[in-house]
Amino acid sequence: MSAAAGASPGLPAPTRPPEPGTTAPGFAGRTHHGEDLRLEDLAGGPSALVFFPFAFSRICGGELAALHARRSLIERAGARVVGVSCDAMHTLRAYAEELVSSGRGHADGPLGLTLLSDFWPHGAISESYGCFDPARGAAGRLTVVLDPELTVTAVQTSGAGEARDPDRTVDLLRRAG
User: Fold this and answer.
1) Range of the domain at 167
2) E-only strand ranges, 10-165
3) Is 1 helix (H, G, I), strand (E, B) or coil?
4) Which tens digit of pLDDT belongs to each residue from 54-113?
5) Does some domain include residue 14?
6) Stretch 8-18: mean pLDDT, rounded?
């Protein structure tokens, strides 16, 4: 395989995010609670896979806290939000506890989303969704919204240093249901 423009020498060329109307790529990983989660577990209701680069970073924390604060809207839509990063499961568990205890999400109770570790094989889920950056060893900012049959209905991206709009994510989840 030849390197794509912009790819680092010796690293694989980036793939593309799935297109709306296609079936979401399958995956399996461990949540911040140590539970197995597969794509098929999301069937039956709308869901959003929210890929983010790093736990404990300012922009990622703001995005996830904003989604946590909208937990009741997400639940009313019958939806599920899964945050995906290449951080280890134990890091994501500590991150979830920090997001809730800091009050940044302004919602009571447990974290209103699931965090999924894409740690090993490192970045495999992010790579299959076209957002793994091999030079940084992290996912890029990508949101993939799925309908109850696991078909991609919308894709949101934002550049490094740019937060995604959580109200848009909630709106896309409502529409996907």
Assistant:
1) 31-176
2) 28-31, 36-38, 47-51, 80-85, 114-117, 132-133, 138-139, 141-146, 152-158
3) coil
4) 999 999 999 999 999 999 999 999 999 999 999 999 999 999 998 888 765 555 557 889
5) no
6) 65
Domain-embedded: residue 22: no
- pTM for the model stands at 0.90
Residue environment code for 77-112, b if the CB has 16+ CB neighbours within 10 A, otherwise e:
bebbbbbbbbbbbebbbebbeebbeeebbebeeebb
Residue 26 domain-assigned? no
Would you tell me how many other CB atoms lie within 10 Å of the CB of residue 151?
15
pLDDT of residue 108: 52
CATH code of the domain containing 169: 3.40.30.10
Q: Tell me how far apart the alpha carbons of residues 98 and 40 are, in angstroms, rounded to a whole number.
A: 29
The answer to whether position 44 is within a domain reads yes
